[in-house]
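User: Teach me something about this protein's shape.
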Amino acid sequence: MVGPGITRDRAMELLNMYLPQENLRRHCIASEAVMRRLANRMNADPDTWGLAGLLHDLDYNETKDDMARHGLITASILEEEGVSGEIIEAIKAHNSEYTGFLRRHPIDFALTAGETMTGLIVAVTLVYPDKKITSVRPRSIVKRIKEKGFARGVSREKILLCTKIGMEIDEFASLCLEAMTSVSSTLGLA
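Assistant: First, the predicted structure itself:
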């Protein structure tokens, strides 16, 4: 592994350039925090994994109405920036249902499961009266995963890809919650 091929500062510049909406940037920052924590758990490079999380939805505004291109436009942008192939492949694979790029490596499964879990955790947080992530417990997240009517847009199938990296759902929910709590002020959930 040669590292991410991009600094976090440059990644943030790109994020601000391509995703002016605060809610989308927050999702990417949450995904970065989760991916860094997962990298540590998997003995992988936290910078590479974290930057995959931070940059995974860079093209969302351009591709939201054409999901077959989601991740591919980001890949082109990042190739020009000299970003590592590991990050680019994970970003293409996080939308494999539309792009056809298969998930093959731990980072691919981690990104898909992790970025999806961030959406569920935000939804769980927002049903609490204080809307603070510190009020959420891992068991509440696991309970909500089983409720198909809750946060319908969040794919339980993608979250359960955590098993492909050797994590059961309880541990995965706890790790993701801890990661997001560490950036709760930035996420507006403090």
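Now, about its shape. The mean pLDDT is 97. The longest helix spans residues 106-127. If you'd like, I can walk through any region in more detail.
User: That's plenty for now, thanks!
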